[in-house]
Structures are given as C-alpha cells and as structure tokens.
C-alpha cells in the first residue's frame, strides 16, 4: 500500500514552529531564514488543504486542526531523533548556543575572546545578538543573557563573572600634545560623553573635588563604543570602564592618566532561564566567561 507522506522539509518546519510558537525561533533551530520557514509552512498548508497557523504580531498560534496534527506528528520526530542517536550520530554534531549581550560589551570584550572559546570547543556554534534593553523586555528565549548586576529576575539564575570601575582614558598622542598632570588640567581638553550615561563625567569630577571644572569642549555620542573609539582616535578624554578598555590599555592604544579616583560600577553577570540552568553547554560557556573575567 502506497504511503501518503507530506513534504518532509515542510513537515519539519511546521513541527518546529508549532512546538516553539514562533517562525523566528524555528528558523534559528533549523539554521534557515524566517522566510524559509514561512514558505515551507505555506507549502504544507497547500498540500493538506487546511490552515495551520493564525498570525498574530510576532507570534503564531496553531489552529485547532494543527494542534491535533502536531500532537501526532511531534512524538514521531522525537522517536526519529532517539533512533538516530542510538544508531550512529557522531558526538561532533554542532550545537548552537544563543547569547544576548550589550553592544559595547560584545564589541570590546566578548568578540575579541570568542576565538579562544571556539578553539577549545569547535563543535559549539555561538550565536550572539546585541541589545541594551532590560532582560524582562526581551522577546526571544536566549540560552544566556549578559547584563549588569547583580540583579534578581524571576525565572533566571544569575552568576557574576566580570567586575569593573570607571576612570578617564585617552590616547598617548593626545597626552603628548596636551599633558594631563592633574585632574584640573582637563580644562584644556575635550570631554567625551555618551548620551545614555550622562552622569559619568559629573560624578567623576565631583569625586576628584573639581565639580565646577569647565573643559575646553564637550562631544556627545549616542553609543558608548563610539565614545571609546573617539578616545582612541585622540579626539578627547573618555570615561573608560576598566573591563572594556583593558585590552586597549595593555596594547598602548589608550592610557589612564590618573589612577584615582575610580567610579564604582556594576558587574557583568550571566542570566540563564531556570529551565536551561542544568544544560551542560550553558554551564560550559558560563564557566568560560568566569575564567576569562578572572584574567
């Protein structure tokens, strides 16, 4: 008797989207584009002659018929996965780890170190997305979210891995042109600001006991990484977070003209959903973060 089988790629896309409730999350799991998942689902709907999803903003909801279909199809995929694992799937099959982190932290600390993680774990694919928004506002379910802390969020396990302070930094070339022998000499310089962190310079100047000091000029950027790049390029003096400028200080791209005062700052922490806190790969990456943070 001839078997009646739907297009298997379309069925796979349907199962992932139905189980996850999102075309985007299904695309990430299947390593295809959002559009590819949508196209495969439409193909299956045309083949079956029924609608499978109701589209609602960024989420999708299964129709009544699709729920019943998924209840029967879903276990078959699990059985297929288990059978394949028993009969020869190599241990080197890559796993994807999804990480969400602030943009400046990602650019200046995480990315320069990721090569070491990849060298030690070539079978792990790390997918990094950047966001500065609060953890509770994230729409996607990431394996690891990196934010400041320590804070407590319901449903998440938190671990600190990197501490920092903030102090003035600038390029060596700038110091050669206009020396900085004391904090009061900042009146001859351009102070670099970040619009999202307006209190950094006023707080530091108050700690240095010169709260009324007026610089030669000020320049404000909308992203912190632009502020730091402007400091590297010799445009002015920025308030540098020690964790994010440590590589530049070591390489001589930046110098810290004053060892004190230093503004205290929040630590960087990894936040993991409770349901993923026991995942071996998640634990591996968190341990790596802590080891790198201790260097």
TrEMBL record:
Family membership: Belongs to the LysR transcriptional regulatory family.
One GO term of the biological process aspect: DNA-templated transcription
Name of the protein this chain belongs to: Transcriptional regulator, LysR family
Origin organism lineage: Bacteria, Pseudomonadati, Pseudomonadota, Betaproteobacteria, Burkholderiales
NCBIfam families: PRK11139.1
Domain spans labelled HTH lysR-type: 6-63
InterPro entries for this protein: LysR-type_TF_proteobact-type, LysR_HTH_N, LysR_subst-bd, WH-like_DNA-bd_sf, WH_DNA-bd_sf
Domain of life according to the entry: Bacteria
Organism: Paraburkholderia phymatum (strain DSM 17167 / CIP 108236 / LMG 21445 / STM815) (Burkholderia phymatum)
Keywords tagged on the record: DNA-binding, Plasmid, Transcription, Transcription regulation
């Amino acid at each position: 008797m001839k078997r009646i089988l739907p297009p298997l790629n379309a069925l796979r896309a349907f199962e992932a989207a139905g189980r996850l409730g999102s075309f985007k999350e299904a695309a990430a799991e299947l390593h295809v584009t959002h559009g590819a998942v949508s196209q495969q689902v439409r193909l299956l709907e045309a083949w079956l002659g029924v609608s499978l999803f109701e589209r609602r903003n960024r989420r999708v909801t299964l129709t009544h018929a699709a729920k019943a279909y998924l209840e029967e199809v879903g276990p078959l995929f699990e059985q297929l996965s288990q059978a394949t694992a028993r009969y020869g799937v190599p241990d080197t099959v890559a796993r994807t780890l999804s990480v969400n982190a602030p943009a400046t932290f990602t650019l200046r600390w995480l990315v320069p170190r990721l090569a070491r993680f990849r060298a030690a774990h070539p079978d792990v694919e790390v997918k990094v997305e950047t966001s500065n928004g609060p953890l509770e506002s994230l729409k996607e379910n990431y394996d690891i979210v990196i934010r400041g802390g320590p804070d407590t969020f319901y449903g998440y396990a938190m671990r600190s891995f990197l501490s920092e302070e903030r102090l003035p930094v600038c390029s060596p070339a700038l110091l050669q042109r206009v020396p900085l022998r004391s904090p009061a000499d900042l009146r001859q310089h351009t102070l670099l600001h970040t619009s999202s962190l307006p209190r950094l310079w006023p707080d530091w100047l108050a700690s240095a006991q010169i709260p009324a000091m007026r610089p030669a000029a000020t320049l404000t950027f909308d992203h912190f990484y632009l502020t730091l790049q402007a400091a590297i390029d010799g445009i002015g003096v920025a308030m540098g977070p020690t964790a994010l400028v440590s590589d530049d200080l070591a390489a001589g791209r930046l110098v810290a003209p004053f060892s004190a005062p230093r503004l205290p700052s929040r630590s960087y922490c990894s936040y993991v959903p409770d349901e993923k806190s026991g995942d071996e790969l998640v634990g591996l990456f968190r341990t790596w973060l802590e080891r790198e943070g201790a260097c």
